[in-house]
Design a protein that fits this description.
Blueprint: E1 9-12, H1 17-23, H2 29-32, H3 36-40, E2 46-51, H4 54-62, H5 66-76, E3 82-86, H6 99-111, E4 116-120, H7 130-139, E5 147-153, H8 162-175, E6 179-184, H9 191-204, E7 209-213, H10 220-230, E8 234-237, H11 251-258, H12 269-289, H13 302-306, H14 310-322, H15 329-342, H16 352-366, H17 375-381, H18 394-400, H19 420-428, H20 436-444, H21 446-461
Parallel strand pairs: 1-2, 1-8, 2-3, 3-4, 4-5, 5-6, 6-7, 7-8
Length: 477
Amino acid sequence: MSEETRKVGITETVLRDAHQSLIATRMPIEQMTPILDKMDKIGYHAVECWGGATFDACLRFLKEDPWERLRTLRKGLPHCKLQMLFRGQNILGYNHYADDVVEEFVLRSLDNGIDVIRIFDCLNDIRNLQTAVKAVQEAKKNYPNAHAQIALCYTLGDAYTLEYWEKLAHDVEELGADSLCIKDMAGLLLPQAGYDLVKALKRGTKLPIEIHTHYTSGMGSMTYLKCIEAGADIIDTASTPFALGTSQPSTDVMVKALQGTPYDTGLDMDKLIEISDYFTPYREQCIKSGLMSTKVLGVNVNTLKYQVPGGMLSNLISQLHQAGKDDKLTEVLEEVPRVRKDFGEPPLVTPSSQIVGTQAVMNVITGERYKMVPKESHKLVAGEFGRTVKPMDPDMMAKVLKPGETQMTDRPADHIAPQLPKFREETAKLVPNPTPEDVLDYALFPQVATDFFNYRKAQQTKVDKKEADTNAKAYPV
């Protein structure tokens, strides 16, 4: 170990990715608020608490206003940098949006309390990150704490050499990012590979480097130590009751492991244990209710064989079960790498993971490869999500693309006209005097937002339209 003293930063994920990974993003704000004051005093580098699937889950399942959640977190964590996950040109949805919607979402996120916006693209296509990064940088005059972090999705394959990562790190700095993160969503980053990767990134950029992994394969803590030795500045960890399994390595364990080393985080173990003690009863409650399955709490080294993230695996199992083909899981897992290779070896992260996984299921169920092609597969092959690191298989393209159709080669968002005026107009039909945040809810999830607006109105008026007899003008209270 180097004797250089370098304090490692800790980004705490318990309020976002940890519960997204273990309980499908179902932790309500009421579970968070009592502990915010203690978390605020810890001294984390940042608290990741918004974005990713939280936005959709708040509206769809928890009947919470995601913007109100953010404002509550901002109020409860006045001394912490708040961080969110942002899917580049997809924002928090699954399709590309016009630049005006991306710019508006960045601005409203900062306005409601976010400091660090971690921006990634499922294909690592830098062109899909530029609008969001530029929007953050332009907002700094009004939001001096605004920070644009680009996350590169880690994956394996012939094209993903150390030279690839080094060049990408250089490109990220050139784009105007404030820091760089390696996002290892499937737990594929091995300890020595992590060391070599960080060294390559350090050759490519002078930006601070953060490492994000999941414990799915059992490698996370070892990988973090090697990455830190190589020069990583920050690691993502989760409070122990919501750590390990498909979540992140434990905050308490990593802080203890680094104590007394040149990389000591300086965080107080006793205070961290208070945070863990707070979340422990809720973990037990989640296990008892079945919300937290014990299946996601262990490790599975097969992750390294199939390279399938936890969320993608559960989707595959669900799709096969619905089709009555539960016995085909091994065949599908073996088909996934073949489809991925045909599709130009994209990293497997939302939405590319769902696209590759669903196509693999279709290929196995129909017994013929690419006989049935979902529209998302077609969009990926047509270049509507961006550029893959390797060319796609020409035989597959001939089956998927329509006669005479060619693959898009320029930035996909250049083909999308401004959308905000239309979204404002449509939202105004649903909500009198909609806020800019209402418009963004509708832009990302039209049907889910519509249902939420109706629910919110029923709470305010104490009238539920679904229970009303509109002909008799009788409205139950």
